[in-house]
Amino acid sequence: MSLQCATCLRMDRFAGPGPAIGLPCEAFPAGIPIGILYGAIDHRRPVPGDAGLLYEPNAEGIALKLLDEPFDEDGEPNEAGEYMPA
Fold first, then answer.
1. Contacts of 36 (CB under 8 A, 6+ apart)
2. 3-state helix vs strand vs coil in the chain, percent to 5
3. Span 14-66, pLDDT tens digits
4. Which helix H or strand E contains 63, and what residues bound it?
5. How far apart are CA 46 and CA 14, in angstroms?
6. Per DSSP, what are the bridge partners of residue 8?
7. Is the distance from CB of 22 to CB of 50 less than 8 angstroms?
8. pTM of the model
9. Which end of the chain is more exposed for a tag (fewer CB within 10 A), N or C?
């Protein structure tokens, strides 16, 4: 499972596999497409079939974003707890 899926608020960690290959989430209740699930597709951007529901970081996702990208798009340091979307 991609880090993006593992740190998404929309991921349903308590559901079993959906009827399609992959685990369900709010955006893909029948199963997350393999490309997203394995990190080949960035779901911060629209993907066909996602009903307009994109990646939204949970607390772990916000913390990882700050570690991965400590500066915003203007080169200013990100503040702790501040999520700067890509």
1. 2, 4, 5, 28, 43, 47
2. 20, 5, 70
3. 555 555 556 889 999 888 898 888 888 888 889 999 999 998 888 877 766 65
4. helix 59-68
5. 25
6. 57
7. no
8. 0.63
9. C
Per-residue model confidence (pLDDT) at position 16: 58
Residue 11, beta-bridge partner list: 25
Please state, in angstroms and rounded to a whole number, the distance separating the CA atoms of residues 23 and 11. Answer: 8
Reduced to 3 states (helix: H, G, I; strand: E, B; else coil), residue 10 is coil
Q: Are 55 and 4 in contact (CB under 8 A)?
A: yes
Length of the chain, please?
A: 86
Is residue 15 within 8 Å of residue 23, measured between CB atoms? yes
pLDDT at position 69, please?
57
Say how far apart CA 62 and CA 85 lie, in whole Å.
Answer: 10
User: Predicted confidence band at 3 (pLDDT cuts at 50, 70, 90)?
Assistant: confident
Q: Which amino acid is at 66?
A: L
